[in-house]
Amino acid sequence: MSREATPFKFNFGSSPASNPSAPESVLDVQVAVQPCSEEKLVIIPASDLTGGHFSDITIGADRNIVLKKGTLTGQSACPISEAPERADSDIVPGKYEGGFKLWECALDLAQHLCTAFDIRATQAQWTCILPRGTRVLELGCGHGLPGILMMLAGCEAHFQDYNEQVLELLTAPNICSNLHNHPSATLPPDKGPRFFAGDWATLPDLLDSQGLLGSYDIILAAETIYSPDSQRQLLQCIKKCLRPGVGQAWVAAKSYYFGVGGGTAAFKSLLTIDGTFESRLAAVIDDGASNKREILVLTHANGKANAPSEG
Ligand SMILES: C[S@@+](CC[C@H](N)C(=O)[O-])C[C@H]1O[C@@H](n2cnc3c(N)ncnc32)[C@H](O)[C@@H]1O
């Protein structure tokens, strides 16, 4: 699955609306665990950034941070998003895990990260209270907007998605577009984005081979705990990837996913039983009309809940 220098495709068709909601249904498909591999994706120059369709999403304390979000549709849509079994489902376990859609908790998380780390952007510069080069991993990134925000704010950001096509066709183009749109955001030297595709069960082995295991100061995950299985797998992965003692994992999700069984309520119970992490409720987003959404911050139960150290 590993490929060298996969070019991006920016000839996307017209854009259908993203529908950020709970999974409509999850098909029960049993397949082997998808092995993880690093995707060597090229960050193309801004001058080559044509043909993609990007819309604006505004976040930040003053609502002045504009993030670019790509759209993937029509003839250029990835086959896995058009597969027959995908037709009535947001997720097909073991095949497609929902990364082509932008889910609402990703935006909750990006918005809250701005507040938590005092991330601000002007024409001239980005500021953030985190040390430059803080290492961030976004698990189940899809569009990757929370991770992209952290990257623009000066962090070293790595992105993981179950499906390599999501990384190639959405995450990486989003990174290009956002770097293009924010020329004052500079990446730490030799700490550009990296991309990992495959199952959380096999990600730790891959990171270990790269000297990255247990090296992440911050792990981000939005809408990744929708089922009991996904919760268990995500927790095991976080336990191995987070920097011992001082790392923080930010998990944004709905409190309950109807018909699927996951959500923050069940995840908190799992955390209590597991005992590795303490969790803090950092935000509750409740408009009274739709499903309540929450953001949890996990820190090691026996560690110091300090700000992340330079990594
Ligand atoms: C519902 S999507 C959320 C995408 C994005 N975070 C957002 O909020 O817009 C769930 C994501 O979790 C990831 N995922 C789910 N189960 C996984 C597994 N077992 N291994 C690896 N990734 C998984 C997929 O990559 C998918 O993009």
Features:
single chain; 311 residues; alpha/beta; Rossmann fold; 8-stranded mixed β-sheet; two-stranded antiparallel ribbon; 24% helix; 20% strand; globular; disordered N terminus; binds S-adenosylmethionine; protein-histidine N-methyltransferase; SAM-dependent_MTases_sf; protein-L-histidine N-tele-methyltransferase activity; S-adenosyl-L-methionine; transferase
Structure write-up:
By secondary structure, the protein is α/β, with parallel strands linked by helices. The chain has one domain (38-300): Rossmann fold (3-Layer(aba) Sandwich), CATH 3.40.50.150. The protein is built from seven helices and twelve strands. It has an eight-stranded mixed β-sheet, sandwiched between helices. A two-stranded antiparallel sheet has the order 2-3. It has a two-stranded antiparallel sheet with strand order 4-5. α2 (104-116) runs parallel beside α3 (145-152) and α6 packs across α7. The chain is globular and about 45 Å long. The two termini are 29 Å apart. Bound molecules: S-adenosylmethionine (SAM). The site of S-adenosylmethionine (SAM) has 20 residues, from α2 and α6. Residues 14-23 have a biased composition (Low complexity). Belongs to the methyltransferase superfamily. METTL18 family. This is protein-histidine N-methyltransferase. InterPro entries: Methyltransf_16 (IPR019410), SAM-dependent_MTases_sf (IPR029063).
In brief, what are we looking at here?
With 311 residues, this protein is an alpha/beta fold.
